[in-house]
Amino acid sequence: MALLETHGLTKEFGGLTALDGVDIEVEEGELVSLIGPNGAGKSTLINTITGRLRPTEGEVFYAGNELVGMKPFEIAQLGVGRSFQTASILPELTVRENVQVASFAAEHGSFRVNFFRRRDSFDEVQARTNDILETIGLDSKARMEAGSLPYGDKRRLEVAIGLATDPDLLFMDEPTAGMSPTETEITVDLIHDLLADWGMTIFLVEHDMDIVFDVSDRIFTLHQGRLIAQGTPEEIRENPAVREAYLGGGEQ
């Protein structure tokens, strides 16, 4: 059984079909990427899998657990994490506090003011926060207010927040968007580290095709809500339907 499976996943918004019978399988330890033009349904697919949207039809299974109908924090407790395309940080808190709050909220469904009075919980989260910040490369900035970070560091903090849920499967939504070449290189190295050192399964949504072809084991291609192709980077690069729908079009 695959780690993640969707069967006939469909999502309609009024008369618009955003997802149309999507079937995917992701194996443990893989890095898979999802590509497609703007409006193809990429964010809708991730939101439906992670419980932020309920599908109109279809099923989602993670490690044998049916996810449809579960709340996002319940899905996070099963081992599914996510870093967001848009900023999800709390700018007035420090870098460390952002990761700590995310860790506790994932476990309990919300953050409680008395959390930092519970020494057992605090010590456990503190240790994990240290590991995450060191992995991400933000340990030297742990006491800085998150809102004062440079853009690239904010994006890396979003990944740290995703890791705070202790995921086995991590969704990364456009992690290099708006980054400089140097920041992008650092993020790609981080992705490799998460695979090699953390034993993580990664589901990547990324607009930079060079990155997608470099890091992916397999690639899924959405177009107008339908899965039109899946395969290795070489297979996707040479697929005529993909080239017409995305790679050879105006959007890269």
TrEMBL record:
UniProt keyword annotations, A-Z: Amino-acid transport, ATP-binding, Nucleotide-binding, Transport
Cellular component GO terms held in the UniProt record: plasma membrane
Parts of the chain that traverse the membrane: none
Pfam families: ABC_tran, BCA_ABC_TP_C
InterPro entries assigned to the protein according to its UniProt record, in alphabetical order: AAA+_ATPase, ABC_AA/LPS_Transport, ABC_transporter-like_ATP-bd, BCA_ABC_TP_C, P-loop_NTPase
Family matches, as PROSITE patterns: ABC_TRANSPORTER_2 (PS50893)
GO biological process, one term: amino acid transport
Residue stretches making up the ABC transporter domain: 4-249
Domain of life: Archaea
Family: Belongs to the ABC transporter superfamily.
Protein name: Probable branched-chain amino acid transport ATP-binding protein LivG
Source organism: Haloferax prahovense (strain DSM 18310 / JCM 13924 / TL6)
